[in-house]
Amino acid sequence: MEKNKPVSFKDNMYRMFLRYAVAPAFGIAFAGVLITFGFWGYSTIDITKKANEDIGGKIVRTIEGYEQALILMETCSDLVTKPIDRVTRVSVFEDVYKLSNKLGYKAKIYIFNKDYVPVIMSNQEVPSYLKNESVANWGIFRLMNNDKDATAIKVMQDMEGQSSSLLIGRTIKDGKEAVGYVVFSIDSSEFQVLLTKVSSQTIIADTYGWIYLANNYDFSDNLDRMSREFETQEGYIKCNGKNFYMESSSMMDDRLRIYTVSDVSNQLAAFKWVGLLLTMMFVVILFSLLKGADKTSAESTRDIDIIANAFEQVQEGNLDNYISICSSKEFQTIGNSYNLMIDSLKEQIEKNKEMIAHMAFAQIKQLESQINPHFLFNTLENIRIMCKLDTAKADKMIVNLSSILRYSISNAEEDVTVRQDMKNTEQYLSILKMRFNRRFRYSVDIEEEVMDLAIPKLLIQPLIENAIKYGFGDKEVLTVKIRGYKDGDNLVFICKDDGTGIEEETLKELKHTLASPKNRSSHLGLYNIHKRINLKYKGNYGVAIESEPDKGTTLTLTLPVYRKSN
């Protein structure tokens, strides 16, 4: 049976007052505030959405009405290909006047030939945005030229920036050829009255953000465009220190967008003050109710809290948090014991770190020392023979052996550069070449960018020893290829031979030895390299071996990339 978690006396007092006095009163008041806030929020959202739908619907119906007229006129090529008499001109204006009365919002009509010369216009002068020198490459003409079968919609401002117009246009075609343009222009003032009929504020802009109509400019930038920050936002937002609820929707295939916003700053401020007042009231009540219990229990529980907090710090790994307690003998004893425990833990951790470092260093040195005797014996035996056959070669082998021994017994540095270790390796290969003559071939391909990287000393030589040990067999010629390169954050060395390969059972034993924490076999060379790397580095590094009988063996050595200065 699970025992209940013990709590302090102070917590019991708090819980009693909270449960039977504060919580019910606070819950009722809080629920009342939430209900009021919810009704207000729902009302704001509903009013804003309806305003958006109402204004957007009327504007869309107006645009679609003029669009239908444009569709009828796009086949009237005679308007731009032949001279227009007075009767035709009057008929066009009468049709536009009737359509404007029907839709309730007046538009001006402009008809241009294919050279952008006006042939019919509502005003005596064409607006500046329809007679620019490069009119074909911008504005509504560019949209009509890009898609001759679609209705173009564009918001334009006059040169003085005093008013905006909504342009609706289509090309006039003779068959499939565009021979002219017809454009309706609706001034923003036509819809101004519409905005006053709703309590929300409205912004209408095109797909590029250019504002056509607005009675709120909090959301416009310095160019009088809809600020990009708010183009895609909805819901409750903040702008210029004010709070708004915004509802947006697209019109005419997203070529126009309508934003309706309601300023909720005053309501939010009111709720904020109400909430603050209620909070202050409950803080005062809570303080009064809990003051007595807190005063009597604080002294008794303070030292317990200090000790509990100290142990929590230890659980999080902080061993530098000491405590000082002087209130009573019992708690003082606990505090002193805690401090002694911290000191003991820190001392033991440091001892363990030092011991691990010494053990790793000793193992590395022991493994490194096992490399030298086998190679030394073979080389001295070879020199003895060479002294009888070719003294010059024997002399060269002695010089190379001297350099190799000097390099291997030097303990000045645990790590060397690739360049240094490859120099030693080249001398080793030279000895092998003189020993086996034509029966041994080798090539070395080490990328220059890895030459100054750091590696453990005497790392590559045992790879070659392995190739000699398992590669010759009954083959007349053995070729060993050594390659070194950088692969991401890894330094990779590959020693590949074309020898007799390793028997399946021996290969299995080698792989098992490399994967074992201790070497219980006679295969020392590769295991020593693998163990040195494992002791020195953390990660998936070490030696990998692959071999096929009569095809050769490939040894892959993987190390982390680092320089001696690191």
TrEMBL record:
Keywords on this record? ATP-binding, Cell membrane, Kinase, Membrane, Nucleotide-binding, Phosphoprotein, Transferase, Transmembrane, Transmembrane helix, Two-component regulatory system
Q: What is its main location?
A: membrane
Q: List the molecular function annotations (GO) for this entry.
A: ATP binding; phosphorelay sensor kinase activity
Is Manganese found in the keyword set? Answer: no
The annotated topology with respect to the bilayer is:
Multi-pass membrane protein
Domain HAMP positions: 298-350
Question: According to the UniProt entry, what is the EC number of this protein?
Answer: 2.7.13.3
Give every Histidine kinase domain span: 459-563
Among the entry's GO cellular component annotations, what is one?
A: plasma membrane
Gene3D superfamilies this protein is in?
6.10.340.10, Histidine kinase-like ATPase, C-terminal domain
> Where does it reside?
Cell membrane
Q: Which reaction(s) does the protein catalyse, per the Swiss-Prot or TrEMBL entry?
A: ATP + protein L-histidine = ADP + protein N-phospho-L-histidine
- Report the top EC class in one word: transferase
**Cross-referenced Pfam families, in alphabetical order?**
HATPase_c (PF02518), His_kinase (PF06580)
Regions that span the bilayer: 20-42, 270-290
Q: SMART domains, from UniProt?
A: HATPase_c
**InterPro entries recorded for this chain?**
Bact_2-comp_sensor_kinase (IPR050640), HAMP_dom (IPR003660), HATPase_C_sf (IPR036890), HATPase_dom (IPR003594), His_kinase_dom (IPR005467), Sig_transdc_His_kin_internal (IPR010559)
Instruction: Quote the PANTHER family the UniProt record gives.
Output: SENSOR HISTIDINE KINASE YPDA, SENSOR PROTEIN KINASE HPTS
This chain's protein is named histidine kinase
Phylogenetic placement of the source organism? Bacteria, Bacillati, Bacillota, Clostridia, Lachnospirales
